[in-house]
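Why do we care about 3D structure at all? Because function follows from shape, and shape follows, mostly, from sequence. That is the central idea of this module. The next example makes it concrete: a single protein chain, its amino acid sequence, and then its structure expressed as C-alpha cells.
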Amino acid sequence: LHGVAEWHDFSWPLEAGEPQILSPGGQVTLSGTFDDWRVSGEAAVDAPGFAEGTLGFDASGDQEHVEAIIREGQLLGGSVSGEVNYNWAEGGLFDLRLETENLSTEPLYPSMPAVVSARFSASGSQEPLSVLVDVERLNAIVSGQAVSGSGKAAYGPGELSFERFELRAEGSSVVLNGSLDRPEGLDFAADVDEVGSFLPGASGALTANGNVQLEKGQPRLKLAAEGKALSWQDIGIPSVVIRDIPSATPGSLAALHLEFMSPEYAGTSLDFATLELDLGEARQTAVLMAGSGEYRLSTEWAGAVENRDKPVADWEWQGTIGSLS
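And the structure:
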C-alpha cells in the first residue's frame, strides 16, 4: 500500500453559506500492507476570528484494529492532543484519551459558544453498547459562564451510573453518586449560592442532599434541604428546613416535613409555618400549621390525583379537608 492525498481550500460545512472551519491545505500519506499499515497526516486549520493553526496525526493498524495519536495541534485559539484505539473485530472495543487547552467550540457550535480546557478518557464497546467516561479535569466558559467538573459516568446494558461526578457553575455545585438502576439508588448533593442564577427573579441560597430510588418503576425520594433568605415575586422566606419523616402511606414517593420561619407573602407575614407531606402513589396527605402572634391555624387534607394517565402538567388533584381549626 502506498498513497498520498492532498487538498487545498477545503471548507466546512460543505453547503452554501459562511464557512465555519477552513483548511487552506493538508496532506495524508499511506504506506504498508493490509496487515501492517500506517497513515500520517497534517493540515492547516483556520476559522473566522482565529489565527491559522495546525493539526496532525499518526495512525497504524491491521485488518482488525487501529491505533492513532493526535499530535498536539494548535488551532481554534487553543490546543488539542490525544490517543485513540479501536478494535472492530472484538465488538467495537474503543479507548480514547483527549486533552484540550483553551479550545474554542464556537466555529462548531455557534449557538452555544464555549472555551474548553479538559483532560478526560473514554472506553467501552459498541456491541453491547457500553461506555465509561472519566473526566479528570474540566474548565470551560460556556456562553460567558464559568463551568468546571470532574468524576466518572458509565453506561452499560440497562444501567447509567455516576461516581463522584461533580459539576460546578457560578458558585453552585451538584454531585452524583450511584445509579437509579441499582437497588441502593442515586445519591445527590447540591449547593446553590444564588437561586436567581437558575430561576430569574428569585434570590437566596439553598443546600440539599438525598437519595432517589426506583422501586418497581416508581420513584422513592429521601431529602434533606435548607434554604436561607429565599424570595420570589411576592414570597419571602428567611429560613426553611426540609427533612424526611416516617410515611404512613404504602408505596410513598416521599414523606417530608417543611418548616418555614417568618414566611411572608405580599406584605403579610407569619411567625412560622410547617407543612407535612406524605405523597403516596394512590393517596396523598398534607398537614399545615401556621402561627402569627396569638393566632394559630391547623388543617389537614387528603386526596389523590385522579388522572395519572395524563401528562403531569394536566394532573387534577381531588381531596377533602379532614380538619380546620
